[in-house]
Amino acid sequence: MKHRDKGIDIFSLSFLDIISCGFGAVVMLILISKTDVDAAPTAGTEDVSAMLSQLVTLQNSVSQIQQEMNQKLEVLSSISEQKQSAAAASKALQQQLKALNQKQAATAESIAGLGLVEERLKQASLKTPQKPNKTRDEDVGGIPVDSDYVVFIVDTSGSMKNIWGKVSQEIVNVLNIHPQVKGFQILNDMGQSLISGYDGQWMPDTPARRKSVIELFKKWNAVSNSSPVEGLTAALRKYAKANITTSIYVFGDDYTGSSYDPVIDAITQQNKKLPSGRRLAKIHAIGFISPGTTDRFSVLMREMTKQNDGTFIALPR
Hints:
Helices cover about 55% and strands about 10% of the residues. The radius of gyration is 51 Å and the shape is rod-shaped. The protein is an alpha/beta fold. The chain has helices at about 15-125, 160, 165-175, 205-220, 230-240, 260-270, 295-305, and strands at about 150-155, 185-190, 205, 245-250, 280-285, 310-315. A six-stranded mixed sheet has the order 3-2-1-4-5-6, sandwiched between helices. It starts with 12 loop residues before the first helix and ends with a strand. Strand 5, helix 7 and strand 6 (about 310-315) form a beta-alpha-beta unit. Helix 3 packs antiparallel against helix 4 (about 205-220) and helix 6 (about 260-270) packs parallel to helix 7 (about 295-305). It has two domains: about 15-125; about 130-315, Rossmann fold, CATH 3.40.50. Residues about 125-140 have low confidence and may be disordered.
């Protein structure tokens, strides 16, 4: 029997199995390849996020450190300013201490003079001088009472108003050491008269007149600049004459002017010396102590009275 050769079938089951396996292998390779590709970007994104987070953390740390440094610099600056302030305060205290020592010395001198004045006031209240005292007492508290006319120049500023009762009493005390004069006048430091009707004239000296004037003085309200210059100028121009003897009493607690020497020179020049050797008027001053008092009034009037045949008295508080 003769065998018949079979033809080759390319689409046999074995061939299809091989093709299927190959195709499956290709699909698996593709899937594996896509998984690796997708995993890489995911891992990179996570790394970037972590780095950004670290960067933000570092920036926050730097900012915090900067703030701490700024705070420490502010503390150091504050300590430096406090040190400078302490040095300035120490210097100011030393200057104040020096000024207080000088003021204490001046006050001690004035108090010593005040004792002499009080003794003289007591003597004057007991006995009226029979004749003018022609020799000036060179002591600090010596007040000559040989003038026939008396002018008061009173600082009417607010600080003086705080002690107005004491000021009024000193007006009475000074009048008492002049038991009887031919006339008197009261001006404020601006040159304004207490009684405008007597401006440029003398008020007659009688017990009743003294009493009424003092009562009016206690209620006096007038503008003042705490500088006796205007008042002294007006008093010398209106009341100081060569044919009469005049004493001017300046009452004050402060001086607001800018300088001393020009003022002293101008007033001294106006208060001329007469051929007899005396000046038109004797200028005395009484310094009061009130809240906020400085030593400028005493500095001015000590020299002013010295050059104009007068006496300066600083009253105690």
